[in-house]
Write a structure and sequence with these properties.
This protein has a single domain, classed as Arc Repressor Mutant, subunit A, CATH 1.10.10. Helix content is 43%, strand content 21%. It contains three helices and five strands. The strands form two sheets. The chain has a three-stranded antiparallel sheet with strand order 2-3-4, covered by helices on one side. The protein has a two-stranded antiparallel sheet with strand order 1-5.
Length: 86
């Protein structure tokens, strides 16, 4: 899975913005925190949910099950707006 090309991202200090362009089917933008931004950035290339969880677990000090839940929730949100290419 990966982020569809119709979605562009921008990241500054603590915010991550994902904007739908062209024929994305979703009109608007998603404002994310650093954690969601980490996940979205990983979705710019082909990846799996498990790989993102592994990378986050290596980066952040949090229980793996909490990270897995957060990753799943954010991926489902992105799916709901049509941002994920399976």
């Amino acid at each position: 899975m990966k982020l569809k090309k119709e979605f562009v991202t921008h990241q500054n200090d603590n915010e991550h913005v994902t904007v739908a362009t062209g024929n994305a089917g979703f009109t608007g933008m998603l404002l994310s925190n650093e954690t969601a931004g980490f996940i979205i950035e990983h979705l710019k290339t082909e990846t799996t949910e498990e790989k993102i969880v592994d990378d986050m677990f290596a980066e952040y000090e949090a229980p793996r099950e909490v990270i897995a839940g957060d990753v799943h929730k954010i991926i489902e949100k992105l799916r709901s707006v049509g941002a994920i290419e399976e």
